[in-house]
Model the fold of this input.
Amino acid sequence: WRVPQKLDGHTGTIFALAAGPDGTAYSGSDDCTVRAWSATDGTHLRTLRGHTAGVAALAIWRDGTVYSGSFRPDGSIRVWSGIDGRCLSVLEGHPGKSVMALAVAHDGTLFSGSADSTIRVWSDGEHVRTLSGHTSAVLDLAIGTRGRLYSASVDTTIRVWSVANGTHLTTIKAHREHVSAVAVGLDGTVYSAGTHESAIRVWSEQDGSLLRTLHGHTWSVLCLGVNTDGNLVSGSLDKTVRIWCGATGVLLETLRARSEVGRLAIGMDNKVYTRCDHEFKVYVW
Done:
């Protein structure tokens, strides 16, 4: 039984979490701010202000640059210095629509998934292309190990794209309803979770075939991540965080939260950051 540390400060629901390569953790909230926290002791480091609507998505590049996307009517993406929290630029690409997901490729290319059903591709602050094909909101994005981008949508599918040129490679009919989360393992294995489904599905990176299904949660799984050991971490409405062996799918550990786990992020030290529904706190496991 683990007792999590609580990080207090937000005055609204937390919708986004991310952990940087230097150990700094970030949380984005309905209070329109992004807060930075020390991974060492949970100290509040700084608050990033500028969005005019709630922060829905966060991503961090390997150099520590922070990207945040907001709900409508703001719908902007802000780029922040990971050193001092200065806003470096504002990207406008999904006018009037919420930015629901962000992901950064190894070369610094930024991808933004939106309620407008598209994914926009950004390089050096410029919009370079739009990936179209989903028929409903894009809820999550993940960068794969072989130059692939995975997008999860309300349209029940995961689409696979080339990071290099945006080519649509294949579509996985992943779940009966919304695909709430997608994550990629260190070996390229793809994981997905669906709204109103308690099972996690595991897909082959090679051909998109279903490899196995992970059972253990008793209610909808809303968020997924992979730690530095290659193990899968999942958060659910059943008020648990579960850790699964990436190689075998065996359940390794169950962490019991106070309420439904709606978001999670994993630090380089394998600390798990979670947001529980109806609370304005970040929990650190």
